[in-house]
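Narrative of accomplishments. A recurring question from our advisory board has been how the design workflow behaves on a single, concrete structure rather than in aggregate. To address it, we present the structure tokens for one chain from the evaluation set, followed by the sequence designed for it. No filtering or post-editing was applied between the two.
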């Protein structure tokens, strides 16, 4: 029976359990290029393999968008079966994937790409919201319009423990990295939910667990209308003990109905490194 199919880019970072719960039909993997070889994010390469390669060589992979042909091949079976497709993309300020999906949609018809204006589980929030809107029986144009409004209510940010990966990716100088690591400075990175661009926020200083709790407190205090249904803790391979500190701290506040822990995709991990953790939530 024809209906509405929900898909997303691989960078939404939802777990297998959430993929099943919200009936996500599939993900389009971005590309991870290491040397002469190209991999598909989350399919034939993992963040831990990227970290091992960086430790051995000091070289980060390049990342590349899903191209138009790949989107056409991905969407075509759904469309030819008579379905409409809602597809949630990585923010357009961060990747050309959204524009490529739009081009594919124009050729096929009945495909509705959504610019999440976010990354990681900021995008994941919109995937879940799309699933709920589909369940409510809204039409595809209505769902697409509501999702565009919801992008402004998603708040994504991270704290980066060490700047090695940002330095290797050309996002800070070696001198700044060495100074920050020496002084134990841990910058926060915020995603602008108006266009998906990233900016550096507060620079924290001190032990990582103390920084993470301060970061959580400040993020939760910054908004009066935080939605309490769900929040994500998403990390780039940070130690389980640090994740547990944040989870227990959030749990003790008794604000959120569900606290999800997810690992960042290869695309996200390539830029920030293993010592990265963020809380991602929505406002009302």
């Amino acid at each position: 029976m024809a209906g509405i199919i929900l898909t997303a880019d691989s960078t939404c970072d939802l777990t297998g359990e959430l993929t099943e719960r919200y009936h996500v039909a599939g993900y389009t993997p971005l590309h991870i290029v290491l040397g002469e070889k190209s991999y598909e994010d989350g399919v034939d390469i993992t963040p831990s393999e990227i970290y091992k390669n960086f430790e051995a060589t000091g070289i980060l992979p390049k990342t590349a968008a899903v191209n138009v042909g790949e989107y056409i091949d991905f969407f075509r079976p759904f469309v030819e079966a008579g379905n409409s497709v809602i597809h949630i993309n990585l923010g357009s300020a961060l990747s050309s994937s959204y524009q490529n999906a739009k081009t594919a949609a124009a050729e096929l018809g009945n495909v509705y790409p959504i610019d999440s204006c976010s990354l990681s589980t900021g995008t994941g929030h919109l995937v879940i919201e799309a699933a709920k809107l589909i369940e409510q029986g809204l039409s595809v144009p209505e769902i697409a319009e509501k999702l565009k409004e919801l992008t402004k209510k998603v708040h994504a940010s991270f704290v980066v423990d060490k700047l090695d990966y940002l330095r290797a990716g050309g996002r800070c100088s070696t001198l700044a990295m060495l100074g920050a690591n020496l002084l134990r400075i841990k910058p926060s990175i915020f995603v602008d939910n108006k266009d998906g661009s990233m900016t550096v926020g507060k620079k924290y200083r001190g032990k990582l667990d103390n920084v993470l709790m301060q970061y959580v407190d400040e993020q939760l205090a910054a908004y009066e209308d935080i939605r309490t249904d769900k929040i994500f803790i998403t990390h780039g391979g940070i130690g389980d003990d640090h994740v547990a500190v944040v989870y227990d701290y959030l749990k003790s506040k008794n604000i959120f109905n569900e606290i999800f822990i997810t690992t960042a995709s290869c695309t996200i991990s390539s830029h920030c490194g293993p010592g990265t953790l963020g809380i991602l939530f929505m406002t009302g």
